[in-house]
Here is the input.
Amino acid sequence: MSVKTPSKLEKILSEGHLAVTSECGPPRGSDPEVITKKAELIKDHVDAINITDNQTSVTRMCSLAACIRLKMMGLEPVLQMVTRDRNRIALQSDILGAASFDIHNILCLSGDHQSFGDCAQGQNVHDIDSMQLIQTVRYMRDEKKFLGGDEINRPPQMFVGAAANPFADPFEIRVPRLAKKVAAGVEFIQTQCIYNLDKFEEWMKGVRDRGLHEKVYILAGLTPMKSVGMARYMKNRVPGMDVPDEVVQRLGDTPKEKQPEEGIKICIESIERLKQVEGVAGFHIMAIEWEEMVPEIVEKGGLYPRPKVN
Amino acid sequence: MIVADKKPVEEIIEYLKNHKNILILGCNECVTVCEAGGQKEVQVLASALRMNALKEGKDVKIDEITLERQCDHEYLEEIRDVIDQYDAVVSLACGVGIQFTAEQYPSIMVYPGVNTCFMGATEKRGVWTERCQGCGQCILAITGSVCPVTRCAKRLFNGPCGGSTKGKCEINPDIDCAWQLIVDRMKALDKLDQFEKLCPIKDWSTDRAGGPRKVVREDVQQ
Here is the structure.
């Protein structure tokens, strides 16, 4: 796949390296150091850092401002953008705002429903969906035009990503849904957290059967478990999450104080296994409020040092 | 039909606290079917208001009328001769009927007696569910006759989000995932290949977004 943007992430993937991305959740306040400190912890071990966009619909510092903080540190942000809170005017406007700071990666999402967050009584927008946001960014970048048809002066140069959840229902359309995102113009995918590796591999087989792995870079999503409590919560309470009983049991059989260590071990084992899966182009490590563990995971997962690209 | 739900009687009592001559005005259409604003509900509300007046020692006249419809001038005319007897109307019609009644009788206060909820259908007695949001550009032809605008909590046009679990929506396990329904139906119709066709960005100008809407049909105007 030829390089179309100045994105460092795109360059690393195009050179055939296994990419490593991670993410930072912005604070529930305006202290910029929350972001810069998290970024400091992981910056030497990842190629790009996602900034989440009001994840789980809890109001936080905006993704764009936090991405600018990363840019100011000389790092490579991935701007997450959900269609829940902005109409097509605001989406295009924020894309241009990000482009003005040379933010070169975007992740197009629909976003968690607002009923999960702190503004459950609020409206949602959903003027366009995540698939259409992919099309929008590609249109702005490649055609150099607004959705309304007018020319964009200095269009965005963004490497366009999206999420995929191989574990949600109905399973039979999960590969077709990826194919649809590819047709919409997506260039990289970060998957939902993988705990059921068998099912992920089944999905990847479907992806390969259609040759989709040659059209889009797939980064396998991983979140280390801190405790058996977290595993149970993810299994039972988080929609679209597939945590097999063996994982819960393995953590449950581990003494409480050793559970975080075991969680990291599971994560590293997953990396080792997923490296063997054809079509996996890298890893997206979402260590939720546990960013300090990312370096260890990356090192023990054999993904360190990170490649240098110009 | 338009589905409405009863308002708490305390809320209605609060509206009416300074009124002495009150007309409870029912509607014989949708709100009768959904048992929120027909003749029966008019009787129940009027009785509750009378009892409350009695309890508070107030001398209040409360009358009951149920019209065929409140969204038609013709039927609203039926109360023209009596309306002057009242200083307040509680309309148990949907929001359309309430407003149309108020437009016909500008000098009298018209209060809502129901909460108008949605356009829906009767699943079974006592259970009504939403089917249409009147977006003005029907896409049911490409979504297996299941509306994602109405029935997907994120109104996604191109497939289910990552929260679809065992056929249910991530926001509530009692709500079907619209896209599960769409996929099931497309499969039953042997049209699942249509799923991969990208649904273009929607023109919402015919929706609420475009401002108050109007349908003008010159062919049926007299």
